Amino acid sequence: MKHWFSDGAFRTIIRNSAYLGSGNVVSALLGLLALSCAGKGMSSEMFGVLVVIQSYTKAVSDFIKFQTWQFVVQFGTPALVSKNFQRFRDVISFSFGLDIASGAIAMLGGMLLLPLLSKALGLDADSFKLALLYCTLIPSMTSSTPTGILRTLDRFDLIAIQQSVKPLLIAMGSVVAYFLHLGFTGFIVTWFISNLFGGVLFWWFSVRELRRKDFQGALRPSLFSSARRIEGAWNFVWTTNLSHSIWAARNSCSTVLVGIILGPASAGLFKIAMTFFDATGTPAKLLEKSFYPEIMRLDPSSRRPWLLGLRSAVLAGGIGILVALLVVIVGKPLISLVFGYKYLESYDLIKIMLGAIVVSMMGFPQESLLLMAGKQRIYLVMQALASGSYILLLVTLSHILGVEGAAYAYFGGQSLDVLLSLIPTLWAYRHRNLLSHHSPKGLVNEQ
Question: Which positions, given as ranges, span the membrane (predicted)?
């Protein structure tokens, strides 16, 4: 481990993860506070409806959105390294245009689909209107250009601030709604305002950094003219979009599917378990956010990015084991304290899902390494196989075992995802000497 930290790139990954960690720890605690107020301030049925509305808008945005942050990192980082500033501007313009177009389509699609699903989601006339209002958040949820800009410009501290401010506002609004007995309407309105402000804050940080770095005019949306100057742009964004849409079907849609199959109350229990799962998986997410930009500065044909991936996976796996043990010890009393005894059943789901924490944390470098190697298409295929298997498991086991079946399905889906992605990752490593001329980094250097 001492030798690992002598590597400057590894130290940078840890440093940037620490920046993000400071924000995510606060975010996780505030998120639990918000859910606690909502769970105690409403009946389990209405709490489930609130969760379903939030999950629905997130699922629609995740399903439609392009991973523009990955595009900015993949093509923008090498452009900055080679001081090709016009190319960097083209990358931002294309990414921004894509966010605007996809956000508008996602919002309209979400609004048009909602009436067809309202009965299955358990929405009455009043909650349907509020759900329709919540759909107007979708454009801000689909845009990821700001986070790509801040990661590429190494401003992880600003990302940490944004990730703390939004949950702080949500938590404050939830506390107010709880003590003033504002009910379902109070919670959903405060969550709506907080999410809207958080999205605006991200854009403000990005605009300020671009001006500070003298990248004036980068945020002028341009789809086709910019794409013509960036070889492989459309191929990359469509492939990563499809991959993320499949991911959305496996993750963001899970709570919605549980709500449709088993009802809003079961969806609420599953959401609590997923909240714990997401919180415990935070270290891997933080490492991934700083790992991807860092390896894009390295030569994919060398051993160094792959060795960084292995070291990061071992570190994340060790943290995952410690976190899983901690959840076993404190999970049950924490749920009783935060949510109340009526939600204690969610602890049984968490115990089932614990194994997936370690597996998913160890597998986090694989997507970044495959994107670096230009192997996004094979990653898409593996995602499709894993996600299709998971959805089949979720529907089948939920009907047979109830909400516990959904937890077993989630564990199986996460494990399949990591194992299937490992196959092309090992292949790319063994053939890494062929990668430099085919990766986007190689194309930029040749130009």
Answer: 20-38, 91-118, 130-153, 188-205, 306-329, 349-366, 378-401, 407-429
